[in-house]
Amino acid sequence: MSLSAIVESIIFAAETPLSLDRLCDLLQEFERSELKSCLIDLAAFHEGRGGGFHLVEVAGGWQFRTRSEFQDYIVRHVRTRSAKFSPSALETLAIIAYRQPITRAEVEYLRGVDCGGVIKTLLDKKLIRILGKKEIPGRPLIYGTSKEFLETFGLKDLKALPTLKEIQALDETPFMELQEELPLDQNATQNIDTLLPFDTEHSAGS
Amino acid sequence: MKQVREDNPSLLDSCKGYYNVHLDVFDGPLDLLLHLIRKNELDVRDIPIAVITRQYLDFIKLMKDLNLEVAGDFLLMASTLLHIKSRMLLPLDDQEEGEVEEADPRAELIRRLLEYQQYKEAGLVIGARALLGREVFTRGCCEEPLASRMQNDDGPVELELFDLVDAFRALLARVPAESFHDVAAADSLSIADCINEMLSLLQERDLIHFDEMVSLEPTRERIVVTFLAILELCRLKLIRIFQNEPHGAIWFIPAVSRDDSNDGVSAQ
């Protein structure tokens, strides 16, 4: 019996993502480092296998999950959770995820609108949780994201969230493309540049 | 300014079309402002306050015209915009000038808009991820496979109180609008009557559909009374209620099945 087969069987039978810590508890006869490399090998194996599911690290644990490209076929058998998030729910969730711990008033300031209903829905869906109370007058509740949030969005941990800078960079791509195109027809546009004063900003930038 | 005024009818028209279809388009004043800025292809960092304020106020007026409740948040932003504009118009005092020289009255608003935009996009990014239960599945993440649902499509499934309330609401929504002209109703239906009616029906049959109870007389009163009667019967543990899917039809059966009572009779 190989260790990787043992680990694989435990993960397969587990209902929730299985953490390395838990695995160490269960398999005390093996070294932590052994188990860790075993998990990485297993993940690589399932990735390279090209099967319908793979081993992924979510919410601090390991879990077998189907690949998203098979969604259309899976839903013929299982019913999808109606996980349709409204833009306001996603916005609020993003604010809480990036700014936690955060109070409702702070969320509302950022969104400029009342968020009581959205926060309650997110709490009901267990995507966010109450972390405690802030030690300021009124002792408002402070919110943060839950383990279910990581599981639902397939995130290893909070650090796996794309940084706000990366998101901003996505938004700025069109501008970068514009800049890259400039050198290609530099010769052709050189004369025109002098004719069009508003283009000088770009040529100065490049 | 004239230019802006000419633009307005088209803005109003487009908003009208947009808004009728989808009431939840704008998630608050910042969202609306961002929409206006994008629509006019403006730079967030250099907003022409007069143009934006006018369009913003037009939009609020439109919301009022459509009888939508304009939330206080929208009005607060309107007053903020006007405040900024007035500060930009007024000449600075000589003493003040030193301190406030570089402070653009718009700075605070711009900072909030940029920050809001950031989180709005972050929301889109996380929303675009492959979600568990939507794109990605684990073993047993969806307890209810379609296959089993198809097998007992007509059969009842246990439900919770809130499913019942939802089904009730769905039913109410189907009721044609009533006219309230005849104030004095000829005879009002009592819950007791309704309970008796249901119990006698249950004598004949094991399974009754909620819609059947109200199909003859689909008025709001009838449905409400029937619903209350069901709740009452449930409380008295005389019937059990089922539904075969969320928001689905309500079915009910006697809590003590008829076979049992027949046995009882034959034993006597």
Automatic annotation (TrEMBL), chain A:
The record's Pfam families line, in alphabetical order, gives: SMC_ScpB
The secretion signal range is: none
> Cell cycle as a keyword?
yes
State the UniProt keywords alphabetically. Answer: Cell cycle, Cell division, Chromosome partition, Cytoplasm
Annotated SUPFAM superfamilies: Winged helix' DNA-binding domain
Family matches, as InterPro entries:
ScpB_csome_segregation (IPR005234), WH-like_DNA-bd_sf (IPR036388), WH_DNA-bd_sf (IPR036390)
Q: What is this protein called?
A: SMC-Scp complex subunit ScpB
Gene encoding the protein = scpB
UniProtKB/TrEMBL annotation, chain B:
Question: What InterPro entries would the database entry show?
Answer: ScpA, ScpA-like_C
**What keywords would UniProt list here?**
Cell cycle, Cell division, Chromosome partition, Cytoplasm
Entry's transmembrane regions:
none
Q: Which residues form a coiled coil?
A: none
Q: Where is it predominantly found?
A: cytoplasm
Q: Which cell locations does it reside in?
A: Cytoplasm
Give the signal peptide, or none: none
- Gene3D superfamilies, per the entry: 6.10.250.2410, Structural maintenance of chromosome 1. Chain E
Pfam families per the record? Answer: SMC_ScpA
Its family remark reads: Belongs to the ScpA family.
Q: What is the annotated role of this protein in its UniProt record?
A: Participates in chromosomal partition during cell division. May act via the formation of a condensin-like complex containing Smc and ScpB that pull DNA away from mid-cell into both cell halves.
Q: Fill in the subunit field for this protein.
A: Component of a cohesin-like complex composed of ScpA, ScpB and the Smc homodimer, in which ScpA and ScpB bind to the head domain of Smc. The presence of the three proteins is required for the association of the complex with DNA.
Name used for this protein in its record: Segregation and condensation protein A
Native source organism of the sequence: Pelotalea chapellei
